[in-house]
Design a protein that fits this description.
Length: about 200
């Protein structure tokens, strides 16, 4: 049975039988319902379909985990979406490392590195400080120190802070930042700086 969404005399769109009513360039248009494609799926389309299957499985995993489900329900509250849609979207979208503010890092223990990650379910931000001088071929540098950043504000995932643990006497450094979200997606970025 076909369905039409909207009120009689109001905005109408949807499919009834083999007719689809939609809006195109501001006008209501009735056209024949599109059938399934007769072309074989491309490799990219097949990969995308597989990703959606995995994302759907992740949403089922979230449904079975009260803690994870509560996180997504909290994110969906007041939004025109569901917790399940957010879980699927989160699985399909890796964290975005927006920027790293290294102005307060001068090679001293206790110096601060501010990291900004766009992902509502970011779980972990790992930092490496490397010395690029005399680095082996194909390497960003030799490890000076590494560790996990902490949230600047508890329960907030956008702003993270890493405090250096060791003294560093080099003139330049490479900062490698790796962010991991609740579904396990990981993003990595690196940048060079001067002490």
């Amino acid at each position: 049975m076909g369905k039409i969404r909207g009120e009689i005399g109001g905005e109408v769109h949807g499919t009834v039988g083999d007719v689809t009513i939609s809006t195109w360039k501001g006008m209501k248009v009735a056209k024949r319902k599109r059938g399934p494609s007769t072309l074989p799926a491309t490799e990219a389309q097949q990969r995308q379909r597989e990703q959606f299957v995995f994302a759907s499985e992740y949403a089922k995993e979230v449904a079975a985990d009260p803690v994870k489900k509560a996180i997504y329900e909290g994110l969906a509250k007041g939004q025109p979406t569901t917790w399940r849609a957010l879980a699927v979207q989160d699985y399909l979208t890796p964290p975005i490392i927006g920027r790293a503010d290294v102005r307060d890092y001068h090679g001293h223990a206790g110096d601060r590195l501010d990291l900004f990650v766009h992902d509502a379910t970011c779980e972990k931000v790992h930092v490496q400080i490397l010395n690029p001088e005399g680095a082996p071929e194909g390497s960003l540098g030799t490890l000076v120190e590494e560790g996990d950043a902490e949230r600047a504000v508890a329960e907030q995932d956008f702003h993270w802070v890493y405090r250096a643990k060791l003294e560093y006497t080099g003139a330049r450094f490479v900062l490698v930042v790796e962010a991991t979200d609740l579904p396990g997606n990981t993003s990595t970025t690196s940048m060079e700086g001067e002490v």
